[in-house]
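Problem: given the chain below (71 residues), write out its structure.
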Amino acid sequence: MTVSKNINNPVGMGGGQRKKLSRAERQNNGPHRNLDRQDAADRKAELVRKMREKAGAAEDTAQTDDDTAQS
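Solution.
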């Protein structure tokens, strides 16, 4: 077998034809991008939920502190 000048790319191994990409995939918004966007939206929703829970808990403790101070 002959070997190309690049040792990492011996002739006759690997390679093959490339998949025909649609215009959308060439612009990097193929079907995988929709999944990435959905995943990012899910993570953001989870983060917002956690932040609201923390804010609600902090608000509740501040409210109870105010109630005890007024008594």
